[in-house]
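Hi L.,

As promised, Glycosyltransferase family 92 protein:
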Amino acid sequence: MRKYQQLALLLISCFSIGVLLMYKSENNRLKYVLKYVNFFGRNDAAVLRRLQNGTAAEDLQHLSKSAFSKPLPVWQLIGDSFYAYSAYWKQNELVVGGEAHIIVVGKKGAVVDFRCSFDVGGRSVQGKFRFQRDAAEGVVDDKASTFTNYNFFCQVSRNFGQPQYVLFSDTTSPIKRQVKLRLRHLKPATAKADAKAAAKATTAAASVASGQVRLPATICVDLVSFDQSTRFARNVDAMLQFFLFHQALGVEHFLVYNYDELPEQVVRLLDRTNMHLYALPFNFPFLQTSATAARIRQLLQTDCLLRNVNYASFTMLLTPNELVYPNARFASQLAKGTVQQLLRVHATATPHFELATFAVCFDERKKLLVDNVQYDPELKSPNKLLLHRLELPAAQLLLPTATTVELPLSSGLAHRYVDCQQVGADGLHDWRNGVRADLMDHINDLRNEVDLLI
């Protein structure tokens, strides 16, 4: 009898172990599924708020899927030595006429001599050509570069309707031909309406003035200079968190330069959210090196500013390993304090705000990016991280003399996640040590929201 009891006990034990192993396997599968079910199926207040904000902004703005990408920018040969990326038309408000602004690169040392005209419904209207070397040309070492950045302008002093194309012909070329560039029309704005809206804007709806609606903020994503070989770039969760953290701040619209470099798995996941991604190609015609990074970034920044004028209140140019943490969210219907309100202490003539940037060591074992707390104080960012306030006319935003204010650490900060392979002599520090309690609470709120989704 005892033998049968022992046998029964052994069978029950084996069965229990089998059930336990099966449960563990199924539990792991369930966790994997829930990770993405949570990403798309949350109904908590944080996610509902973002859905509500995104829907409200979209209802007000009526943006199409190509709002920021049409006409599609592409590097196009316009002479023997010059390439144009994008062309913008701005109608003058106080005087007759208007001007086309074209982002151009040319071979170093090439002679600039063009004629320009406009195509208006099949009718040709002659324009006056002028050009400027980009502002970065005066501060960046030009010895290693094979190209020069330019801003081309074609101006007319009378009103003849809305042109659809601007045409250029290179007078130095032995082959005389006109190259046609499709114009993107800058969204018009009334100065008085903008000033009134800026003073009152605390929500997306409150920024409506005379039919003028602006998104709280957009982000231009730089995948042109982003190093795709880093551990960060190969980490899908890290790439997702770039978008999720900024969405928690109130950003729903992302303009992605060199869009094809965005991992397909990231694209598929983001396509099922209420975020809006705009694909912008960047088939740059010259060799890109570390020495030309600042010059290429300036091209992207110029296009980003022009593309967002009167569409958004703020914009930033960021690589996916750069996260910004201002001490408030961008304007939303439920936010008590917003970036818009906090920056009103600065004059509207101040369009650019620099955020203190920490080179934070990226550890793949950390679930959330913000949980990486060690940074190298000796590792400096290759570029300034700027928050652009788009209240001024486009020409003033792009002036080399446009004011830039360095924001105190209490107003916000930025993280640039890097591989800390060679640490400086001063060692690593904890970035939280210098952060005020209220800003840290705000960052933790963002962290908790993203933790629900990732």
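The chain has a mean pLDDT of 83.

Thanks again for sending the construct details.

K.
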